[in-house]
Design a protein that fits this description.
The complex is a heterodimer of chains A (about 250) and B (about 375).
Chain A lengths: L1 E5 L2 E3 L21 E3 L1 H17 L2 E8 L4 H9 L4 E6 L6 H15 L3 E5 L10 H9 L3 E11 L2 E8 L2 E8 L2 E5 L11 H7 L5 E4 L31 H10 L5
Parallel strand pairs in A: 1-4, 1-6, 4-5, 5-11, 6-10, 7-10
Antiparallel strand pairs in A: 2-3, 7-8, 8-9
Helix pairs in contact in A: 2-5, 3-4
Chain B lengths: L8 H28 L4 H9 L18 H14 L1 H21 L2 H11 L4 E5 L15 E5 L2 E12 L6 E12 L5 E9 L5 E5 L11 E12 L3 E2 L5 H37 L1 E2 L2 E2 L4 H29 L5 H26 L10 H9 L8 H11 L6
Parallel strand pairs in B: 1-4
Antiparallel strand pairs in B: 2-3, 3-7, 4-5, 5-8, 6-7, 9-10
Helix pairs in contact in B: 1-3, 3-4, 3-6, 4-6, 6-7, 6-8, 6-9, 7-8, 8-9, 8-10
The chains are: A alpha/beta (about 250), B alpha+beta (about 375).
The complex binds flavin-adenine dinucleotide (FAD) (2 copies).
């Protein structure tokens, strides 16, 4: 099988995010980046499919030169090929989708894995946009997948339950937690990843469809306060809501 | 300074991988295994799967081919989460695989080394009840009988020697007397299950409770002469050479323990409030944390520099002793402060502070006590050449 996995480079979830001086982008200084956690399920599922059916797994990312580090991680997990579509400046989802779709057209994958969402900008647009550009089905938020007879049977997490759907190949699968347990790269593979090639190509430019106007950090959440549990405490609550919180 | 200062991209990926593994696989079970004093075959197998039981062995023995800097980083990251599992890996690689790889002949290497990647352990039997710091005072004897050597005696405190997945141990024994009257010491490869060789796990340890520590007994145990490691009479030299390198892994455990204790303490100090303010804002607490941070910076830079020396094949007898001594005493200070900062909670098993505190203590004793390290350093700077 020809398997394509789209991976997104995101700040480590433990990183404290600050808004940069322009007020429109995040301050990237000192940020540690990782593969978006949902994309790790995509890599793992791709590798398992390959181990079962043979074929190749290609990892692709749209991003700056710095994104080679997540491609190295993917190589250490033993994907066969890593591709960087190079883009430096501020880009929207449409741009990323267009570039992923153009690359997919070139290599004609039997299946494309993505994460359910990229945990940085959380736009959740990629699977649908790419599926539209390629004219192939897209199944989102998949937590179990079986491939047989040219078809994908997928379990999807829906509010309060599961939905089971079928789609013909090629298709896009967006991965949800629970799909698998991503492997840890093995030490020898980490050491070998350096010598494996990364294919780099220039991105196709598109018009900006969505423009970021500003960014802000959510106000610090204040811890709740328990005043007591008797009727006598209600007056104090009312007083505080009125005088301190000024909401009544 | 950046924790990854002067490291390559692969080394950084390696650190991230081991950190994730330690936090996801080891951390959730560490407290319980420590409490039950249980060695986990399951976790050891998982560690083997990613290559941790063959860190610096080359590819041809199914090893990972890590340089010393990378190997030490692995140990540091494990110790940051749990001392016992760091001990299993450090002892197996430095003391188990090390002597076989450095002093074994090709046949011996081919027989044992490739199995480590599949999750088998090897022990290092130097210490005896009567020969601790004075390791040369080995009482275990080996007497030649045709093609065999007959071993008698006992070893104590041998890490990894009696688990269900232990293949055997390298054992130092007295094979005669040198001209001049000194003991002639030689190393033997002894497989578990050899008749006359029994092992017994030691229980009720203060620290490293999820790591296996054993007594070894030899009663007319017959070992084929092909199982001698290197040349007859080279044993003591081999053991000391092994310890020179092994000290760096103890140092790494000190650094990791101190790092883990530091993070735990800082985190707690920023959230625990007394007198209306986080305790981290009281100078008495803040200065403790500042001292640990200073120690961590110094220790990390020094230890990895010594590893680089070793990677360049330079002699590190003095530097290894300094690294081991400094890092283990740093861990002592850091884990002590960590408990202090936790107050009463620091003494309870529900918190990691007390485990860091207990696990640290071995580092000032194993592979040469702090006194012995000071002895090595004093000797190297010429104090006794008068
Ligand atoms: C060079 C560059 C600069 C950017 N700068 C900004 C900025 O300044 N401000 C801003 O708001 N946004 C920025 N973005 C983010 C961009 O607008 C999209 O939000 C982002 O690429 C992900 O799209 P999404 O959120 O719709 O993805 P989602 O739909 O949430 O992600 C789903 C899945 O799509 C795949 N995917 C997502 N992104 C990529 C990628 N880049 N490469 C490969 N696969 C991917 C992954 O599998 C991911 O799990 C930038 C992106 C790039 C590449
Ligand atoms: C958990 C654990 C795991 C271990 N794993 C192994 C292993 O895998 N293989 C192995 O061979 N050994 C192992 N050891 C043994 C360890 O290396 C010894 O315990 C250590 O070398 C000290 O020896 P000892 O316990 O006999 O103490 P002693 O040598 O009796 O020391 C007692 C005290 O006397 C001091 N002292 C001794 N001589 C001098 C001197 N000349 N000058 C000043 N002070 C001195 C010491 O510093 C110490 O404070 C392990 C020990 C433990 C506890």
């Amino acid at each position: 099988m020809n398997i394509l996995v789209c991976i997104s480079r995101v700040p480590d979830t433990a990183t404290r995010i600050l808004v940069g001086p322009d007020g429109k982008t995040i301050d990237t200084q000192g940020i540690k980046y990782v593969i978006s956690p949902y994309d790790e399920y995509g890599i793992e599922e791709g590798l398992r499919l390959k181990e079962k059916n043979g074929g190749t797994v290609t990892a692709v990312t749209v991003g700056s030169e710095g994104s080679t580090d997540i491609l190295r991680t993917a190589l250490a997990m033993c994907v066969d090929k890593a591709v960087l579509i190079k883009a430096d400046t501020h880009k929207d989802s449409y741009f990323v989708a267009k570039n992923l779709a153009e690359y997919a057209k070139e290599i004609n994958p039997d299946i494309i894995f993505m994460g359910r969402q990229s945990v940085d900008y959380d736009s959740l647009q990629m699977p649908s946009m790419v599926s539209e550009f390629l004219g192939i089905p897209s199944v989102s938020v998949v937590s179990k997948l079986t491939i047989a007879d040219g078809k994908a049977t997928a379990e999807r997490d829906v509010e309060g339950g599961k939905e089971i759907v079928e789609a013909s190949l090629p298709c896009i699968i967006s991965c949800q937690k629970g799909l698998n347990e991503p492997r840890y790269p093995k030490l020898p593979d980490i050491m070998k990843a350096k010598s494996k090639p990364i294919e780099t190509r220039e991105a196709i430019q598109t018009d900006e469809k969505v423009t970021v106007l500003g960014m802000s950090i959510p106000l610090k959440q204040r811890a709740g306060r328990i005043l007591g549990d008797g009727d006598g405490d209600i007056d104090e609550l009312v007083r505080l809501l009125h005088e301190e919180a000024k909401i009544i | 300074m950046d924790i990854n200062r002067n490291f390559t991209g692969e080394q950084i990926l390696l650190r991230d991988t081991i950190r994730k593994f330690a936090e996801e696989v080891i951390k959730p079970k560490a407290r319980e295994l420590d409490e039950k004093e249980e060695f986990s075959v399951e976790i050891t197998k998982q560690m083997a799967e990613i290559g941790l039981l063959a860190c610096f062995l080359p590819d041809k023995y199914n090893g990972c081919g890590l340089d010393y800097v990378s190997y030490i980083m692995v140990v540091e990251e494990l110790a940051r989460v749990d001392g016992s599992h760091a001990a299993t890996i450090a002892a197996h690689n430095s003391l188990g695989a090390g002597p076989l790889y450095y002093y074994g002949n090709e046949e011996q290497k081919k027989k044992y080394l490739p199995k480590f990647a599949d999750g088998y352990l090897w022990g290092f039997g130097l210490t005896e009840p009567e020969a601790g710091s004075d390791a040369g005072n080995t009482q275990t004897t080996a007497v030649q009988d045709g093609d065999y050597w007959v071993l008698n005696g006992a070893k104590i405190f041998i890490t990894n020697a009696s688990t269900d997945i232990t293949l055997g141990s390298t054992v130092l024994a007295c094979t005669g007397t040198k001209p001049g009257g000194k003991k002639e010491l030689s190393c033997f490869i002894v497989e578990n299950g050899t008749p006359g060789f029994t092992t017994k796990a030691m229980k009720n340890k203060l620290m490293w409770r999820a790591s296996n520590t054993s007594e070894l007994y030899f009663e007319d145990c017959r070992v084929h002469k092909d199982n001698m490691l290197g040349k007859r009479g080279d044993g003591f030299h081999q053991m000391l050479g092994t310890l020179d390198n092994g000290r760096l892994s103890i140092a790494a455990m000190g650094l990791g323990n101190a790092q883990g204790a530091f993070e735990t303490a800082l985190n707690y100090a920023k959230t625990r409030k007394q007198f209306g303010k986080p305790i981290s804002t009281y100078q008495a607490t803040a200065f403790k944390l500042a001292d640990i941070d200073m120690g961590l910076e110094m220790a990390r830079n020094y230890l990895y520099e010594v590893c680089r020396m070793l990677d360049r094949n330079e002699n590190i007898t003095k530097e290894g002793a300094i690294a081991k001594l400094y890092c283990s005493e740093l861990a002592h200070m850091a884990s002590n402060h960590c408990v202090q900062i936790h107050g009463g909670y620091g003494l309870m098993k529900e918190y990691d502070a007390e485990r860091f505190y207990r696990d640290q203590k071995l580092l000032e004793i194993g592979e040469g006590t702090s006194e012995i390290q000071r002895l090595v350093i004093s000797r190297m700077i010429g104090c006794f050449d008068v």
